[in-house]
């Protein structure tokens, strides 16, 4: 089965639906799949970041910012937010 970037949006929608239903693990799986299909989709990273923030998972949140910046290094907001994790 080939990867079809046009289906990434479906995985984002499904991930967000799982998140709203309280099924965080399934939400993360779907959002990760969306990123695998199209690494430039800011909304998938944002949704994952919100999940990690709600869970107070600083390591997960930092990791998702770093991954996003690999594909969108010019994103000032993500760089600014990542700066919060670099401080002692």
Task: Kindly describe this structure.
- The protein is mainly alpha-helical and 88 residues long.
- It contains 5 helices and no strands.
- Helix 3 runs antiparallel to helix 4 (58-71).
- The chain is flat.
The overall strand count is 0
Instruction: Specify the overall morphology.
Output: flat
Element order, helices and strands?
A: HHHHH
Which structural category fits the helices and strands?
mainly alpha
Report the mean per-residue pLDDT as an integer: 83
Which stretches are low in confidence, meaning pLDDT under 50 for 5 or more residues running?
none
The percent of residues in helical segments reads over 70%
The Cα radius of gyration reads 13 Å
% residues in beta strands: under 5%
Q: Treating each run of at least 4 consecutive H or I residues as one helix, how many helices?
A: 5
Distance between the termini: 45 Å
Largest sheet: none
């Amino acid at each position: 089965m080939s990867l079809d970037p046009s289906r990434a949006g479906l995985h984002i929608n499904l991930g967000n639906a799982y998140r709203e239903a309280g099924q965080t693990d399934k939400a993360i799986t779907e959002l990760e799949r969306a990123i695998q299909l199209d690494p430039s989709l800011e909304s998938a990273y944002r949704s994952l970041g919100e999940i990690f923030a709600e869970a107070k998972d600083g390591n997960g949140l930092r990791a998702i910012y770093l991954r996003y910046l690999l594909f969108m290094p010019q994103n000032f907001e993500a760089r600014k937010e990542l700066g919060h994790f670099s401080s002692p």
